[in-house]
Amino acid sequence: MTGFGTDYFDDRRMFRALAKEFAYQHLAHAIDESGPTGESLTIDLARLGPQRPRRLLVVISGIHGVEGPAGSALQRQLMACDLPTYQMPDDAGVLLIHAANPFGYAWGRRWNEDNVDVNRNFVDFAAPLPQRQDYAALDAWLNPVDLGDTRAFQRRGAELVAQRGLKWLHRTLIEGQHEFPRGLYFAGRAPVVSNQLLQKVFADAVQGVEHALVVDLHTGMGGFGDCLYLPGHEPGSAHFDWLAAHFNRARMVLPTTDDSSPAAPVAGKLSSWLIDRYPQLVYLTIEFGTVPDERMLRSERAENWLFHHGDRTTPEAAAILREIRETSAPADPRWQRRVLVQGAAVLADACRAVFGSTSR
User: Fold this and answer.
1) In angstroms, rounded to a whole number, what is the distance separating the alpha carbons of residues 300 and 308?
2) Around Cβ 6, how many Cβ atoms within 10 Å?
3) Helices marked H in the chain — which ranges?
């Protein structure tokens, strides 16, 4: 029951079976949406250890739905292969959050049922929302009613890069926008269901916790099969220094506004929301690289067009859905092996950092 499953439902079935086998406390939060053929959708939690631990390791998968397979595989590997080798201290606990965006995971899209990027949705909606004028100028190119010719899309992309630069285009695409509800990287106009559920989960989970580490598993950024670490804290802070002491500093990347980093500053991330509220919490995002950015954007654009304007029963739809899966969870066994090996090393470091050296 480790390794990569076929889809969200296969991954969820295996996750639940392992939770039962290894005596985790399991809880499923249903959302009021269905899968492609009417199936129920849930965010599943698996907890190990005392109800109110002093130390806590949290591992999240699937906040960007279609990226979920790698995170699920690593959560299941942790349950079945890695954690059984640790003698966890009596005051330590583990919380696995499986499929934080179950709709996107099940339907094969980054976004949720509201077309919202859940990891851009953690903003203060009582305050005025930012206006993204640069994005507004790109909406017709990014979110067409007619998908059109791929070559025309690529030509326009090349023109934009020549005019404004690759970093400008990358930042404009991913920073999150609140004006175009059918557009890519829509950040929403209110907290979505996954946002609300995650707020409740963390409010309960951190009660009595003196130190917590959150490892948030993603795919897409970086070279094919490469593993990057994105600290949720500024260099020079105590939490950043703690991460640098326990994880491979050479793999860490920080967001910049120039071309020196693959990461760009964005608003509305879960990490920022949690860090602001829970000072005992340390946050580390893990990225496993897949395909070049242009191919990723092309696949996200095509899937978004399909969701809003297309017919999922056509051969064209099947090709679009295969491609979005391939750009976020490649079928190449070499990529999958690298994810499992590198991910196991990251989570082993996380266990040692939180629990100490307590191998059986």
Assistant:
1) 12
2) 8
3) 8-21, 68-77, 102-107, 133-142, 150-164, 166-174, 193-205, 238-246, 270-277, 293-309, 315-328, 333-355
Residue 42, pLDDT score:
98
Tokens 């939180």 identify what position? Answer: 354
CATH 3.40.630.10 fits 8-123+192-290+330-355, yes or no: yes
Average pLDDT in the 75-80 region? Answer: 97
pLDDT tens profile 315-332? 999 999 999 999 999 999
Q: Radius of gyration of the chain from Cα atoms?
A: 20
Contact 312, 306 (CB under 8 A): yes
3-state secondary structure at position 188? coil
- 2's CB contacts (< 8 A; 6+ apart) are 14, 73, 76, 77, 80, 81, 340
Contact of 59 with 15, CB cutoff 8 Å: no
Q: Where are the domains of the chain?
A: 8-123+192-290+330-355
Which strand ranges, in their side-by-side order, compose the sheet holding 281-289?
A: 25-34, 40-48, 92-98, 55-61, 211-220, 281-289, 227-231
Amino acid (one-letter) located at 343: G
Task: Calculate mean pLDDT across residues 85-100.
Answer: 94
Q: What is the DSSP letter of 10?
A: H
Both structure tokens of 262: 């693959």
Task: Give the closest residue to 285 by CA, choosing from 247, 237, 321, 259.
Answer: 247
